[in-house]
Amino acid sequence: MRLMGVGRRYGAGGPWVLRDIDFEVPAGTLLRIEGANGSGKSTLLRLLAGIDAPSAGRIVDRPRTAYVPERFPAALPFTALGWLTHMGRIHGLGRAAAAAAGRDWLERFGAGGHARTPLAELSKGTSQKVAVAQGLLGAPGLLVLDEAWTGLDRASRALLDDAVRDRVAAGASVVFVDHDPRRLAGAAGAGYRVEAGRLTRVPVPADAPAGPRVRIEAQAPPGGAHLPPDLPGDPHRESLPGAVRLTVAAAHSDALLRSLLTARPPWHIRAVTALDPRTPGEDPRP
Question: Which of 210, 228, 241, 285 has the fewest Cβ atoms nearer than 10 Å?
Fold first, then answer.
């Protein structure tokens, strides 16, 4: 998905919240968005999700998208399961499949006992579990999370972390904002900051505990070629004669391989090696 010269303001004469945003969201990537309160982070996420339309520029190639806001609009005439079934149908699932997926996610988040509870009667935490479940049940190609962890208990936050990693590994894109600077540290492929209406790339925090890594050796196409831009996982790069060695977190290895193999022209994969961070002499975070 690409944003080309995108701007957003509220009202014909209102100030520009965002201006001249050129931004690409590659498949199979996890992108973190940061910025001060009121900087336009939520506006950007709503544009990505298709909730709002740009005032200038255009957005192209948006995949099927799910959006999870910080505050779930609980005043809706549905039960928890009824809402998830309804949203599952919107995502293209049949009624039975949507209901089954809704029940499954409610159980995973420990909210199965609230399946028949009206949304307006749910606690903040349980409402947020329902909001997150609707974002996950249709396996979207783009998942947009605007402080979706807010209000969740510790186990549910960890479950959402794992679900995000699973979506990225499956080739989907996830864009998120969260107040915790360590959220998904080491997993995000790139970070961006919204400031003064502009979007700039910033470093993402490294993972605290060293996790499993994968080393990929890829041979350049005949005649040579540049690596695809914004490789998933922001891998460490080492140049080899006619090739490159990339080291990346294991969670991003499938997406990185897919990016290399589907490049035009494609790269030839010579070797894929799993690195154990406990192995002496291996630097798990080059």
Answer: 241
pTM for the predicted model, two decimal places: 0.71
Amino acid at 224: G
- DSSP structure class, residue 152: -
| Nearest-angstrom CA–CA distance, 180 and 233 | 20
Instruction: Return d(Cα 203, Cα 233) in angstroms, integer.
Output: 12
78 vs 81: CA distance, rounded Å:
8
Establish whether the linkage from the previous residue to 77 is cis, with ω within 30° of 0: no
Q: In sequence order, what DSSP letters do the residues of 247-286 get, joined into one string?
A: EEEHHHHHHHHHHHHTSSSPPEEEEEEEE-TTSTT--S--
The 8-class DSSP code of residue 79 comes to B
First-to-last CA distance in the chain?
Answer: 30
State the DSSP code for 201.
E
| Burial of residue 205 (number of CB atoms within 10 Å: 0-12, 13-18, 19+) | middle
For 46, the token pair is 């709503």
**Tens of pLDDT along 4-53?**
999 999 888 889 999 999 999 998 999 999 998 889 999 999 999 999 99
- Of 58, 48, 25, which is closest to residue 255 (Cα–Cα)? 25
The structure tokens 């935490």 sit at 125
* Residue 190 to residue 2: CA distance in whole angstroms: 15
